[in-house]
Amino acid sequence: GKKWTKVEQLNSELKDQVVLVRGRAQAIRAVGKKMAFVVVRKRGFTVQCVLTVAPDLVSPQMVKFATSLSRESIVDIEGVISVPGQAITGASQQVEIQVRKLYCVNKAAPTLPIMIEDAARSEVEIEKALQAGEQLVRVNQDTRLNFRVLDIRTPANQGIFRIQYHVEKIFRQFLESEGFFGIHTPKLIAGSSEGGSAVFRLDYKGTPACLAQSPQLHKQMSICGDFNRVFEIGPVFRAEDSFTHRHLCEFTGLDVEMEIEEHYSEVMDIVDRLFVTIFDSLNETCSKELAAINKQYPFDKLKYLRKTLRLTFEEGVQMLKEAGVEIDPLGDLNTETERKLGQLVLEKYGTEFYILHRYPLAVRPFYTMPCHDNTNYSNSFDVFIRGEEIISGAQRVHVPEFLVERAQSCGIDVKTISTYIDAFRYGAPPHGGFGVGLERVVMLFCALNNIRKTSLFPRDPQRIAP
Ligand code: 4AD
User: What sequence ranges are listed for the domain Aminoacyl-transfer RNA synthetases class-II family profile (predicted)?
Assistant: First the structure.
Protein backbone atom coordinates (compact mmCIF):
# COMPACT_ATOMS: atom_id res chain seq x y z
CA GLY A 1 0.00 0.00 0.00
CA LYS A 2 0.90 3.66 -0.26
CA LYS A 3 2.62 5.40 2.62
CA TRP A 4 0.59 8.31 3.95
CA THR A 5 1.82 11.12 6.15
CA LYS A 6 -0.48 13.11 8.43
CA VAL A 7 -0.50 16.89 7.99
CA GLU A 8 0.29 17.36 11.69
CA GLN A 9 3.46 15.22 11.29
CA LEU A 10 4.97 17.36 8.52
CA ASN A 11 8.16 19.07 9.68
CA SER A 12 11.58 20.16 8.44
CA GLU A 13 13.12 16.76 9.20
CA LEU A 14 11.24 15.48 6.15
CA LYS A 15 12.99 18.02 3.87
CA ASP A 16 13.43 16.74 0.29
CA GLN A 17 11.37 13.63 0.98
CA VAL A 18 8.35 12.66 -1.09
CA VAL A 19 5.15 12.58 0.95
CA LEU A 20 1.54 11.66 0.29
CA VAL A 21 -1.14 13.46 2.31
CA ARG A 22 -4.92 13.58 2.29
CA GLY A 23 -6.88 16.56 3.49
CA ARG A 24 -9.25 19.31 2.49
CA ALA A 25 -8.50 22.19 0.16
CA GLN A 26 -9.10 24.98 2.65
CA ALA A 27 -7.84 27.89 0.56
CA ILE A 28 -6.86 28.10 -3.11
CA ARG A 29 -4.97 30.96 -4.70
CA ALA A 30 -3.70 31.32 -8.26
CA VAL A 31 -0.60 33.36 -9.12
CA GLY A 32 -0.86 33.91 -12.86
CA LYS A 33 -1.26 30.75 -14.91
CA LYS A 34 1.91 29.04 -13.84
CA MET A 35 1.56 28.88 -10.12
CA ALA A 36 -1.04 28.17 -7.44
CA PHE A 37 -1.18 27.66 -3.69
CA VAL A 38 -3.53 25.19 -2.03
CA VAL A 39 -3.70 25.14 1.78
CA VAL A 40 -4.57 21.59 2.80
CA ARG A 41 -6.10 20.94 6.19
CA LYS A 42 -6.53 17.78 8.22
CA ARG A 43 -8.02 17.74 11.74
CA GLY A 44 -7.19 21.38 12.34
CA PHE A 45 -3.60 21.27 11.03
CA THR A 46 -2.76 22.97 7.74
CA VAL A 47 0.05 22.82 5.19
CA GLN A 48 0.75 25.05 2.20
CA CYS A 49 1.04 23.13 -1.08
CA VAL A 50 2.72 24.89 -4.01
CA LEU A 51 1.92 24.06 -7.61
CA THR A 52 4.56 25.32 -10.02
CA VAL A 53 4.59 24.58 -13.75
CA ALA A 54 7.89 22.77 -14.43
CA PRO A 55 8.92 19.54 -16.18
CA ASP A 56 9.50 17.63 -12.90
CA LEU A 57 6.54 19.20 -11.07
CA VAL A 58 3.11 19.93 -12.61
CA SER A 59 1.57 20.83 -15.97
CA PRO A 60 -0.34 24.07 -16.76
CA GLN A 61 -3.51 21.94 -16.89
CA MET A 62 -2.86 20.78 -13.34
CA VAL A 63 -2.56 24.38 -12.10
CA LYS A 64 -5.84 25.17 -13.85
CA PHE A 65 -7.49 22.11 -12.31
CA ALA A 66 -6.25 23.04 -8.82
CA THR A 67 -7.57 26.60 -9.05
CA SER A 68 -10.97 25.30 -10.15
CA LEU A 69 -11.37 23.08 -7.06
CA SER A 70 -14.12 24.02 -4.65
CA ARG A 71 -13.05 24.79 -1.09
CA GLU A 72 -13.33 21.92 1.42
CA SER A 73 -13.02 19.30 -1.34
CA ILE A 74 -11.08 16.21 -0.25
CA VAL A 75 -7.73 16.04 -2.04
CA ASP A 76 -4.70 13.75 -2.18
CA ILE A 77 -1.38 15.48 -2.67
CA GLU A 78 1.93 13.92 -3.57
CA GLY A 79 4.98 16.15 -3.46
CA VAL A 80 8.36 17.02 -2.02
CA ILE A 81 8.83 18.73 1.32
CA SER A 82 10.65 22.07 1.19
CA VAL A 83 11.53 24.54 3.92
CA PRO A 84 10.97 28.19 2.94
CA GLY A 85 13.32 30.89 4.16
CA GLN A 86 10.63 32.81 6.00
CA ALA A 87 7.81 31.91 8.35
CA ILE A 88 4.56 30.68 6.79
CA THR A 89 1.61 32.66 8.10
CA GLY A 90 -1.27 31.00 6.29
CA ALA A 91 -0.73 27.47 7.63
CA SER A 92 0.10 25.72 10.89
CA GLN A 93 2.99 23.63 9.52
CA GLN A 94 6.26 25.45 8.82
CA VAL A 95 7.12 23.43 5.70
CA GLU A 96 5.66 23.43 2.19
CA ILE A 97 4.86 20.66 -0.24
CA GLN A 98 6.10 21.15 -3.81
CA VAL A 99 3.28 19.33 -5.56
CA ARG A 100 3.89 16.61 -8.15
CA LYS A 101 0.43 15.10 -8.19
CA LEU A 102 -2.96 16.27 -7.03
CA TYR A 103 -6.16 14.18 -7.08
CA CYS A 104 -9.59 15.29 -6.10
CA VAL A 105 -11.09 12.42 -4.07
CA ASN A 106 -14.48 14.06 -3.61
CA LYS A 107 -15.56 17.59 -4.34
CA ALA A 108 -17.48 19.91 -2.04
CA ALA A 109 -20.38 22.10 -3.16
CA PRO A 110 -19.18 25.23 -5.03
CA THR A 111 -20.45 27.58 -2.32
CA LEU A 112 -20.25 27.05 1.45
CA PRO A 113 -22.48 28.57 4.14
CA ILE A 114 -19.44 28.95 6.41
CA MET A 115 -15.82 29.58 5.50
CA ILE A 116 -13.65 27.62 7.91
CA GLU A 117 -10.98 30.35 7.99
CA ASP A 118 -13.63 32.90 9.00
CA ALA A 119 -15.14 30.56 11.58
CA ALA A 120 -11.71 29.93 13.09
CA ARG A 121 -10.81 33.55 13.81
CA SER A 122 -10.64 35.00 17.30
CA GLU A 123 -12.47 38.22 18.19
CA VAL A 124 -9.15 40.08 18.23
CA GLU A 125 -8.24 38.79 14.77
CA ILE A 126 -11.68 39.76 13.45
CA GLU A 127 -11.33 43.31 14.82
CA LYS A 128 -7.86 43.65 13.29
CA ALA A 129 -9.01 42.34 9.91
CA LEU A 130 -12.02 44.66 9.86
CA GLN A 131 -9.83 47.64 10.69
CA ALA A 132 -7.48 46.65 7.88
CA GLY A 133 -10.49 46.86 5.58
CA GLU A 134 -10.60 43.11 4.93
CA GLN A 135 -13.88 41.62 3.70
CA LEU A 136 -14.99 38.98 6.14
CA VAL A 137 -18.12 37.52 7.59
CA ARG A 138 -18.53 37.20 11.33
CA VAL A 139 -19.97 33.72 11.78
CA ASN A 140 -22.65 33.84 14.47
CA GLN A 141 -23.46 31.04 16.90
CA ASP A 142 -26.72 30.01 15.24
CA THR A 143 -25.14 29.74 11.80
CA ARG A 144 -22.34 27.68 13.30
CA LEU A 145 -24.83 25.30 14.88
CA ASN A 146 -27.00 25.11 11.76
CA PHE A 147 -23.94 24.02 9.76
CA ARG A 148 -22.21 22.18 12.56
CA VAL A 149 -20.36 19.73 10.27
CA LEU A 150 -18.49 22.71 8.84
CA ASP A 151 -18.12 24.52 12.16
CA ILE A 152 -16.49 21.56 13.91
CA ARG A 153 -13.70 21.60 11.34
CA THR A 154 -12.06 24.61 13.01
CA PRO A 155 -8.90 23.90 15.03
CA ALA A 156 -10.54 25.12 18.25
CA ASN A 157 -13.51 22.79 17.81
CA GLN A 158 -11.24 19.89 16.90
CA GLY A 159 -9.52 20.58 20.24
CA ILE A 160 -12.71 20.94 22.28
CA PHE A 161 -14.09 17.52 21.41
CA ARG A 162 -10.79 15.73 21.90
CA ILE A 163 -10.49 17.37 25.30
CA GLN A 164 -14.02 16.33 26.13
CA TYR A 165 -13.16 12.74 25.34
CA HIS A 166 -10.03 13.01 27.45
CA VAL A 167 -12.09 14.09 30.48
CA GLU A 168 -14.34 11.07 29.96
CA LYS A 169 -11.32 8.77 29.58
CA ILE A 170 -9.56 9.95 32.75
CA PHE A 171 -12.87 9.85 34.65
CA ARG A 172 -13.19 6.19 33.73
CA GLN A 173 -9.52 5.32 34.37
CA PHE A 174 -9.38 7.04 37.74
CA LEU A 175 -12.59 5.47 39.01
CA GLU A 176 -11.56 2.03 37.81
CA SER A 177 -8.33 2.39 39.77
CA GLU A 178 -10.45 3.20 42.84
CA GLY A 179 -12.52 0.02 42.56
CA PHE A 180 -15.52 1.42 40.64
CA PHE A 181 -17.02 -0.18 37.56
CA GLY A 182 -19.27 1.20 34.83
CA ILE A 183 -23.01 0.53 34.57
CA HIS A 184 -25.83 1.60 32.26
CA THR A 185 -29.21 2.46 33.70
CA PRO A 186 -32.46 2.86 31.75
CA LYS A 187 -33.28 6.18 30.14
CA LEU A 188 -36.97 5.33 29.82
CA ILE A 189 -38.41 5.43 33.31
CA ALA A 190 -41.86 5.50 34.91
CA GLY A 191 -41.55 8.61 37.10
CA SER A 192 -39.26 11.63 37.09
CA SER A 193 -35.89 11.05 38.74
CA GLU A 194 -35.15 14.59 39.94
CA GLY A 195 -38.67 16.03 40.33
CA GLY A 196 -39.61 19.51 39.17
CA SER A 197 -41.01 20.45 35.81
CA ALA A 198 -37.91 19.87 33.68
CA VAL A 199 -38.95 16.42 32.52
CA PHE A 200 -39.77 15.10 29.05
CA ARG A 201 -42.96 13.07 29.30
CA LEU A 202 -43.82 10.39 26.79
CA ASP A 203 -46.18 7.56 26.10
CA TYR A 204 -44.69 4.14 26.85
CA LYS A 205 -47.04 1.73 25.06
CA GLY A 206 -50.06 3.36 26.67
CA THR A 207 -48.43 4.08 30.04
CA PRO A 208 -47.14 7.55 30.95
CA ALA A 209 -43.36 7.60 31.23
CA CYS A 210 -40.38 9.98 31.37
CA LEU A 211 -36.95 10.38 29.88
CA ALA A 212 -34.47 10.02 32.74
CA GLN A 213 -33.35 13.39 34.16
CA SER A 214 -30.39 11.54 35.71
CA PRO A 215 -29.39 7.95 36.57
CA GLN A 216 -30.10 8.87 40.21
CA LEU A 217 -32.70 6.28 41.14
CA HIS A 218 -31.17 3.32 39.36
CA LYS A 219 -27.59 4.03 40.35
CA GLN A 220 -28.75 3.99 43.97
CA MET A 221 -30.71 0.79 43.34
CA SER A 222 -27.55 -0.84 42.03
CA ILE A 223 -25.87 0.01 45.34
CA CYS A 224 -28.80 -1.72 47.06
CA GLY A 225 -27.88 -4.66 44.81
CA ASP A 226 -24.38 -4.87 46.35
CA PHE A 227 -22.55 -3.18 43.49
CA ASN A 228 -20.59 -1.18 46.07
CA ARG A 229 -18.97 1.44 43.78
CA VAL A 230 -20.33 2.36 40.34
CA PHE A 231 -20.11 5.04 37.69
CA GLU A 232 -22.10 5.78 34.57
CA ILE A 233 -21.41 7.88 31.48
CA GLY A 234 -24.61 8.51 29.60
CA PRO A 235 -27.23 10.91 28.27
CA VAL A 236 -29.32 13.00 30.64
CA PHE A 237 -32.55 14.68 29.56
CA ARG A 238 -33.91 17.92 31.00
CA ALA A 239 -36.91 19.73 29.54
CA GLU A 240 -35.38 23.07 30.54
CA ASP A 241 -37.47 26.16 29.84
CA SER A 242 -34.64 28.57 30.37
CA PHE A 243 -32.57 29.53 27.36
CA THR A 244 -29.22 30.20 29.04
CA HIS A 245 -25.51 29.87 28.32
CA ARG A 246 -25.29 26.76 30.52
CA HIS A 247 -28.47 24.71 30.11
CA LEU A 248 -29.01 22.01 27.52
CA CYS A 249 -32.04 19.76 27.12
CA GLU A 250 -29.75 16.79 26.61
CA PHE A 251 -26.27 16.54 28.07
CA THR A 252 -23.74 13.89 29.04
CA GLY A 253 -23.83 12.96 32.69
CA LEU A 254 -20.83 11.51 34.50
CA ASP A 255 -22.38 9.86 37.54
CA VAL A 256 -20.86 8.20 40.56
CA GLU A 257 -22.46 6.26 43.41
CA MET A 258 -20.65 4.55 46.28
CA GLU A 259 -21.09 3.01 49.69
CA ILE A 260 -20.07 5.30 52.53
CA GLU A 261 -18.12 3.72 55.36
CA GLU A 262 -18.10 6.47 57.97
CA HIS A 263 -18.77 9.94 56.63
CA TYR A 264 -20.06 11.57 53.46
CA SER A 265 -16.74 13.37 53.11
CA GLU A 266 -15.54 10.11 51.52
CA VAL A 267 -17.60 11.13 48.46
CA MET A 268 -15.95 14.57 48.40
CA ASP A 269 -12.54 12.89 48.70
CA ILE A 270 -13.27 11.09 45.42
CA VAL A 271 -14.38 14.35 43.75
CA ASP A 272 -11.21 16.03 44.97
CA ARG A 273 -8.72 13.45 43.71
CA LEU A 274 -10.70 12.70 40.54
CA PHE A 275 -10.74 16.30 39.37
CA VAL A 276 -7.17 17.12 40.33
CA THR A 277 -6.22 14.05 38.25
CA ILE A 278 -8.39 15.19 35.32
CA PHE A 279 -7.04 18.76 35.34
CA ASP A 280 -3.42 17.60 35.67
CA SER A 281 -3.87 15.16 32.82
CA LEU A 282 -5.48 17.77 30.55
CA ASN A 283 -2.61 20.18 31.19
CA GLU A 284 0.02 17.49 30.68
CA THR A 285 -1.28 15.62 27.65
CA CYS A 286 -3.60 17.96 25.74
CA SER A 287 -1.30 20.92 25.14
CA LYS A 288 -1.88 20.95 21.35
CA GLU A 289 -5.66 20.91 21.79
CA LEU A 290 -5.56 23.56 24.53
CA ALA A 291 -3.34 25.77 22.37
CA ALA A 292 -5.79 25.47 19.46
CA ILE A 293 -8.70 26.48 21.70
CA ASN A 294 -6.67 29.28 23.27
CA LYS A 295 -5.82 30.71 19.87
CA GLN A 296 -9.48 31.32 19.00
CA TYR A 297 -10.89 31.74 22.51
CA PRO A 298 -8.08 33.05 24.73
CA PHE A 299 -8.33 31.89 28.36
CA ASP A 300 -6.23 31.73 31.51
CA LYS A 301 -5.16 28.35 32.82
CA LEU A 302 -7.48 27.12 35.57
CA LYS A 303 -6.19 27.79 39.08
CA TYR A 304 -6.71 24.80 41.38
CA LEU A 305 -5.11 23.52 44.56
CA ARG A 306 -3.43 20.14 45.11
CA LYS A 307 -6.01 19.53 47.84
CA THR A 308 -9.39 20.94 46.83
CA LEU A 309 -10.79 23.65 49.08
CA ARG A 310 -13.98 22.72 50.99
CA LEU A 311 -16.17 25.44 52.42
CA THR A 312 -19.46 24.99 54.20
CA PHE A 313 -22.53 26.75 52.89
CA GLU A 314 -22.59 28.77 56.12
CA GLU A 315 -19.02 29.93 55.49
CA GLY A 316 -20.02 30.90 51.95
CA VAL A 317 -22.99 32.92 53.24
CA GLN A 318 -20.66 34.64 55.71
CA MET A 319 -18.13 35.53 52.99
CA LEU A 320 -20.89 36.99 50.86
CA LYS A 321 -22.23 38.92 53.84
CA GLU A 322 -18.82 40.43 54.56
CA ALA A 323 -18.69 41.51 50.92
CA GLY A 324 -22.06 43.24 51.32
CA VAL A 325 -24.21 40.54 49.66
CA GLU A 326 -27.08 39.43 51.91
CA ILE A 327 -28.69 36.10 51.07
CA ASP A 328 -31.18 33.82 52.81
CA PRO A 329 -28.97 31.53 54.95
CA LEU A 330 -31.38 28.63 54.32
CA GLY A 331 -32.07 29.43 50.67
CA ASP A 332 -30.07 28.61 47.54
CA LEU A 333 -27.43 30.52 45.63
CA ASN A 334 -28.31 31.88 42.18
CA THR A 335 -26.10 32.34 39.13
CA GLU A 336 -25.07 35.77 40.31
CA THR A 337 -24.27 34.90 43.94
CA GLU A 338 -22.43 31.76 42.80
CA ARG A 339 -20.23 33.92 40.56
CA LYS A 340 -19.68 36.44 43.31
CA LEU A 341 -18.68 33.73 45.79
CA GLY A 342 -16.36 32.28 43.16
CA GLN A 343 -14.57 35.64 42.93
CA LEU A 344 -14.31 35.95 46.71
CA VAL A 345 -12.93 32.40 46.98
CA LEU A 346 -10.35 33.15 44.28
CA GLU A 347 -9.22 36.31 46.06
CA LYS A 348 -9.01 34.66 49.46
CA TYR A 349 -7.79 31.15 48.63
CA GLY A 350 -6.28 31.47 45.13
CA THR A 351 -8.41 28.72 43.57
CA GLU A 352 -11.07 28.64 40.87
CA PHE A 353 -12.14 25.12 41.79
CA TYR A 354 -13.76 24.36 45.11
CA ILE A 355 -16.44 22.38 46.94
CA LEU A 356 -19.30 24.03 48.83
CA HIS A 357 -21.02 21.62 51.24
CA ARG A 358 -23.66 21.31 53.98
CA TYR A 359 -26.35 22.93 51.82
CA PRO A 360 -29.69 23.86 53.37
CA LEU A 361 -31.91 20.75 53.21
CA ALA A 362 -34.87 22.68 51.78
CA VAL A 363 -33.08 23.40 48.49
CA ARG A 364 -31.93 19.81 47.84
CA PRO A 365 -33.79 16.86 46.26
CA PHE A 366 -35.90 14.51 48.41
CA TYR A 367 -33.29 11.72 48.45
CA THR A 368 -30.70 13.92 50.23
CA MET A 369 -29.62 12.98 53.78
CA PRO A 370 -30.14 15.71 56.40
CA CYS A 371 -27.18 16.52 58.67
CA HIS A 372 -27.49 14.53 61.91
CA ASP A 373 -26.49 17.53 64.05
CA ASN A 374 -28.81 20.07 62.38
CA THR A 375 -31.62 19.02 60.06
CA ASN A 376 -31.82 22.48 58.50
CA TYR A 377 -28.73 21.41 56.62
CA SER A 378 -27.86 18.35 54.57
CA ASN A 379 -24.91 16.10 53.77
CA SER A 380 -24.70 17.52 50.29
CA PHE A 381 -22.41 19.61 48.12
CA ASP A 382 -21.97 21.47 44.87
CA VAL A 383 -18.66 21.89 43.08
CA PHE A 384 -17.70 25.00 41.14
CA ILE A 385 -15.28 25.94 38.38
CA ARG A 386 -14.80 29.69 37.86
CA GLY A 387 -17.93 30.40 39.91
CA GLU A 388 -20.24 28.04 38.02
CA GLU A 389 -21.65 24.70 39.12
CA ILE A 390 -20.32 21.53 37.49
CA ILE A 391 -21.29 18.91 40.07
CA SER A 392 -23.89 18.25 42.69
CA GLY A 393 -23.66 15.39 45.12
CA ALA A 394 -24.79 14.10 48.47
CA GLN A 395 -25.25 11.31 50.93
CA ARG A 396 -28.64 9.66 50.29
CA VAL A 397 -31.41 8.62 52.64
CA HIS A 398 -31.10 4.81 52.89
CA VAL A 399 -33.91 4.06 55.39
CA PRO A 400 -37.11 3.31 53.42
CA GLU A 401 -39.63 4.74 55.90
CA PHE A 402 -37.69 7.99 56.09
CA LEU A 403 -37.31 8.08 52.32
CA VAL A 404 -41.11 7.90 51.94
CA GLU A 405 -41.49 10.71 54.45
CA ARG A 406 -38.94 12.88 52.63
CA ALA A 407 -40.50 12.23 49.22
CA GLN A 408 -43.97 13.12 50.52
CA SER A 409 -42.79 16.29 52.18
CA CYS A 410 -41.24 17.30 48.82
CA GLY A 411 -44.61 16.78 47.14
CA ILE A 412 -43.62 13.68 45.20
CA ASP A 413 -46.24 11.05 44.35
CA VAL A 414 -44.62 8.03 46.03
CA LYS A 415 -46.56 5.63 43.79
CA THR A 416 -44.49 6.72 40.78
CA ILE A 417 -41.24 5.73 42.52
CA SER A 418 -42.51 2.71 44.50
CA THR A 419 -40.01 0.26 42.95
CA TYR A 420 -37.19 2.64 43.92
CA ILE A 421 -38.44 2.84 47.53
CA ASP A 422 -38.87 -0.95 47.63
CA ALA A 423 -35.21 -1.40 46.74
CA PHE A 424 -34.38 -0.05 50.22
CA ARG A 425 -36.63 -2.51 52.05
CA TYR A 426 -34.25 -5.45 51.76
CA GLY A 427 -31.26 -3.86 53.47
CA ALA A 428 -29.52 -0.83 52.00
CA PRO A 429 -26.04 0.36 53.03
CA PRO A 430 -25.24 4.02 53.71
CA HIS A 431 -24.22 5.54 50.39
CA GLY A 432 -23.73 8.70 48.39
CA GLY A 433 -22.57 9.99 45.06
CA PHE A 434 -22.55 12.83 42.62
CA GLY A 435 -23.40 13.86 39.07
CA VAL A 436 -21.13 15.88 36.75
CA GLY A 437 -22.16 17.70 33.58
CA LEU A 438 -19.45 16.85 31.02
CA GLU A 439 -20.18 19.80 28.73
CA ARG A 440 -19.97 22.17 31.68
CA VAL A 441 -16.60 20.81 32.78
CA VAL A 442 -15.07 21.44 29.35
CA MET A 443 -16.82 24.81 28.95
CA LEU A 444 -15.52 26.07 32.29
CA PHE A 445 -12.06 24.52 32.18
CA CYS A 446 -11.54 26.44 28.92
CA ALA A 447 -13.52 29.49 30.14
CA LEU A 448 -15.84 29.31 27.13
CA ASN A 449 -18.93 31.48 27.27
CA ASN A 450 -21.54 29.02 26.01
CA ILE A 451 -22.30 25.35 26.68
CA ARG A 452 -23.35 24.93 23.03
CA LYS A 453 -19.66 25.17 22.15
CA THR A 454 -18.95 21.97 24.06
CA SER A 455 -21.93 19.94 22.85
CA LEU A 456 -21.32 18.30 19.48
CA PHE A 457 -24.93 18.63 18.29
CA PRO A 458 -26.58 20.64 21.06
CA ARG A 459 -30.21 20.28 22.08
CA ASP A 460 -31.62 23.36 23.78
CA PRO A 461 -35.17 24.67 24.26
CA GLN A 462 -35.13 26.01 20.68
CA ARG A 463 -33.03 23.45 18.86
CA ILE A 464 -33.39 19.78 17.98
CA ALA A 465 -31.43 19.79 14.71
CA PRO A 466 -29.05 19.07 13.12
O1 4AD B 1 -27.42 19.21 39.82
P2 4AD B 1 -28.05 18.06 39.07
O3 4AD B 1 -29.44 18.24 38.63
O4 4AD B 1 -27.89 16.81 40.02
C5 4AD B 1 -28.32 15.52 39.72
O6 4AD B 1 -28.74 15.16 38.64
C7 4AD B 1 -28.09 14.54 40.84
N8 4AD B 1 -28.76 13.27 40.51
C9 4AD B 1 -26.63 14.33 41.04
C10 4AD B 1 -26.32 13.47 42.21
O11 4AD B 1 -25.71 12.44 42.07
N12 4AD B 1 -26.71 13.91 43.39
O13 4AD B 1 -27.15 17.73 37.82
C14 4AD B 1 -25.80 17.34 37.97
C15 4AD B 1 -24.91 18.18 37.06
C16 4AD B 1 -24.91 19.66 37.35
O17 4AD B 1 -23.99 19.99 38.35
C18 4AD B 1 -24.51 20.25 36.02
O19 4AD B 1 -23.10 20.18 35.83
C20 4AD B 1 -25.14 19.31 35.06
O21 4AD B 1 -25.39 18.09 35.73
N22 4AD B 1 -26.41 19.85 34.54
C23 4AD B 1 -26.58 20.33 33.29
N24 4AD B 1 -25.73 20.47 32.26
C25 4AD B 1 -26.21 20.98 31.12
N26 4AD B 1 -27.50 21.33 30.92
C27 4AD B 1 -28.39 21.21 31.93
N28 4AD B 1 -29.66 21.54 31.71
C29 4AD B 1 -27.95 20.69 33.18
N30 4AD B 1 -28.56 20.42 34.34
C31 4AD B 1 -27.60 19.91 35.15
Answer: 161-458
Across the range 3-16, mean pLDDT stands at: 96
For the CA of 193, the nearest atom of ligand 1 = 8
Distance of alpha carbon 288 from alpha carbon 430, whole angstroms? 43
Atom in ligand 1 nearest the alpha carbon of residue 382: 17
Among 193, 214, 378, 392, the active-site one is 392
φ/ψ of residue 152, rounded to 5: -75, 0
Which residue, 350, 178, 348, 358, is CA-closest to 269? 178
Q: Which of 56, 68, 46, 66 is nearest to 98 (CA)?
A: 56
Q: For residue 196, is pLDDT > 80?
A: no
Cα 412 to chain center, whole Å? 32
Q: Please give the average per-residue pLDDT across 395-414, as a whole number.
A: 95
Distance CA 423, CA 427 (A): 8
Nearest to 326 by CA among 318, 314, 334: 318
Per residue in 220-261, pLDDT (tens digit) is: 999 999 999 999 999 999 999 989 999 999 999 999 999 999
Confidence at residue 211, expressed as pLDDT on a 0 to 100 scale:
97
